[in-house]
Amino acid sequence: MLKCRTVWRKLAPLARASSTVCRQNVRRTGLTHGRLPAQVPAAHMSTGPAGGGRENQLYFLLVGVACVGGGVYAYRTVKGDQLRYQDRIDEIASRQEKFNTEKPDTPSESEPPAVEATETQVVPKPEPQAEPVPEPQAEPLPEEPSPPVPDAEVEAPSETTEPPLEEPVVEAPPEEPAEPHAVPVVEEVGESTPVSLKVPSHTPYLLIGGGTASFAAARSIRARDPGAKVLIVTDEPDLPYMRPPLSKELWFSDDPSVTETLRFKQWNGKERSIYFQPASFYINPEELEGTENGGVAVLTGRKVVHMDVRGNKVKLDDDTEISYDKCLIATGGVPRNLQVMERAGEEVMKRTTLFRKVDDFKSLDKVSRNIKSITIIGGGFLGSELACALGRRSNDSGLEVIQMYPEKGNMGKVLPEYLSNWTTEKVKREGVKIISEALVKSVTFKDDKVEILLKDGRLVKTDHIVAAVGLEPNVDLAKSAGLEVDSDFGGFRVNAELQARSNIWVAGDAACFYDIRLGRRRVEHHDHAVVSGRLAGENMTGANKPYWHQSMFWSDLGPDVGYEAIGIVDSSLPTVGVFAKATSKDTPRAATEKSGTGIRSESETEDTATSPVASSTPAPSVEQNRDDYGKGVIFYLRDKVVVGIILWNVFNRMPIARKIIKDGEEHADLNEVAKLFNIHED
Amino acid sequence: MSYCRQEGKDRIIFVTKEDHETPSNAELIAEDPDDPYEEQGLILPNGDINWNCPCLGGMASGPCGSQFKEAFSCFHYSKEEVKGSECIDNFRNMQECMQRYPELYPQEEEKESSPQAESDSGSASAAPSESSTLTPETDSTPGPDNTLPTDNQTVS
């Protein structure tokens, strides 16, 4: 609501300006003088006793004809396009709301062109004054067989079919419809507007999917190919954003409007948005072709449904076709659901969240404030992070937070058992009720509660479920594109250079790629999306580099437990863990304070903050329990070679870990290798 | 004293500070600075600027990317006495462009990170706006991979 109002406020002056322009334009054509006063009730006119007569009659005749013409035209317009208009508006309203809040300026940009273009069509005879302005707008609209259709222009086509009718009253009606159009156009824009629906028919670089990998690729392409024109097509309404804060920092924010702003404060006070770039970074899709220095355009709310590899083009869900020179598929994935949940019925589905996107965060935040009990199914990264975040909240709100999973402990598939157990204890201390070794048998809705029946007979009653049971990579395009899908890991099968076919690359969660060191794999982490997106972007601009720089990942489970990891970190592999006693200086909080960033992978690449927080670290805690895994390094071995490393509460040493994995050597004594990390130091 | 135990396939070692004081005898393979596969720093082995360096944030790829590249290239290859003195126009163009996007290029003077390593304060007003891109709003590619700036690369 407020959004609409602010947008309206922004646009209103523009609308007024543009309608004034219209009016002025038409006035300049010298025909209005009779017109305007006609709007005013006759009583105001100084039709004095002698003042009437022929002049007035002519006057009224002109006005009458104008009105009739306008009326007929309007009637036709409304009748003719009503249906299409409504469909369009509905579609637009549903998908563009978010986009509009990000781009309040662009609607206003497309506004004047919209209105002025209207005039261009309707006033075919060169009216010298009117022309220069609409002219440039006519330029970028070469493709369309019909006149340009910025969405506001839905009614424009019908206008152009009207010329014969309009001839006699050519000047007057354009003004009339132009004005009312200015108003509905603005209203539309005020509601939830799509900035523009004009899609370029060809783009040199097409990126399918608008997530982290896509954005990283866009940046890479733009850096390497001067003046590159990049089009991102995403079915989400949002511009590219980063996902980790959705299950971490955003939950810890003190700001009550965080669900709107999506900004979060990191430990050191530095604030940032989850969006990689504000809307002003991007350009309008319709401007992409004409822009001199290139840019990145994002087409939101459109899904690519068909890919024609032979013809180098794709088709969107509204039948638009876009051809490309190079294409990146970065479609990510969709959260998996348990089969028992899908069979559970609508009442249960209504009370289930499959967490992945911004909208999921918003709705879960809202739901969690209004219920008494929430259950998270899944013990991996996402499930544990959400459990901790909600558990933290439960201290204030009395919300019961339950986490259930089939493994024995949190992160059971990642951490060796002893560490997994230790982690589980920590999670419990965050206020989470853990139900381990839980296999869900059925879920029903009864007595206003969701009942989860486990295979061993335990029954859990809760109000809402969050299912964090994995990600299904989105390979919908594989069929039409004829691309290979990997049967072991899922996802599109690509080579070491992330290439699927000649002009097609795949990056991010959806890419099953060949890692020269570690073998074929598919990685679902943020940094991998960045690394692989960057690499794909480089290769799309001719770099021909394989996946070589190993990506990392990290997780925090509360303020005491944080780790960074790299490589293959699978608990089924034999591990060697080297631990020291932790002091209170070794916590995730301290690490971010030192490095000045909450996104841990960044601390590697960007200099430390200029004003490091002078945290008063209390004296190192005394005498830790022997089996307290405060901090250390865990090596994961495959055939005696280290293929994965976890840095447990030890930070800013990722380059060393990366080096060890890259070398791929057999080390006789891993304690010696552990020495390289200096785990006792800060 | 270090203490070791085995839990199934997992081995756990606890070490004290003293245990780790002796230098490690683990062998690491020597790095090849010209390895084409490796992530490069700001300056490539052949002396060119690596526009894709994460240290630049979004500078080379944003709306003012081409102006930035021109200005920075001019500076980089400048052989003048006062480095970059002939590049004033380029930097002015860049600044004008950046002023058009205050959201992306906040106008405050923040001194941060690596482009500074290359360009000295001779590039005056341009430099601060360069570095200001590494503030939260614009630099927000989390963890673009790669090498710690200290990792050898020939930055300045």
Automatic annotation (TrEMBL), chain B:
Biological processes annotated in GO: mitochondrial respiratory chain complex assembly; protein import into mitochondrial intermembrane space
The highest taxon in the source lineage is Eukaryota
A GO MF annotation of the entry reads:
protein-disulfide reductase activity
Main location as per UniProt: mitochondrion
What UniProt keywords apply to this chain's record, in alphabetical order? Disulfide bond, Mitochondrion, Oxidoreductase, Protein transport, Redox-active center, Translocation, Transport
Query: Where does the record say this protein resides?
Result: Mitochondrion intermembrane space
List the biased-composition ranges (Polar residues): 133-156
Any one GO cellular component localisation term in the record:
mitochondrial intermembrane space
According to the record, the signal peptide region is none
Alphabetical list of InterPro entries matching this protein: CHCH, CHCHD4
Q: Record's PANTHER family?
A: COILED-COIL-HELIX-COILED-COIL-HELIX DOMAIN CONTAINING 4
Per its record, how is this protein called by name? Answer: Coiled-coil-helix-coiled-coil-helix domain containing 4a
Q: Which organism was this protein described from? A: Labrus bergylta
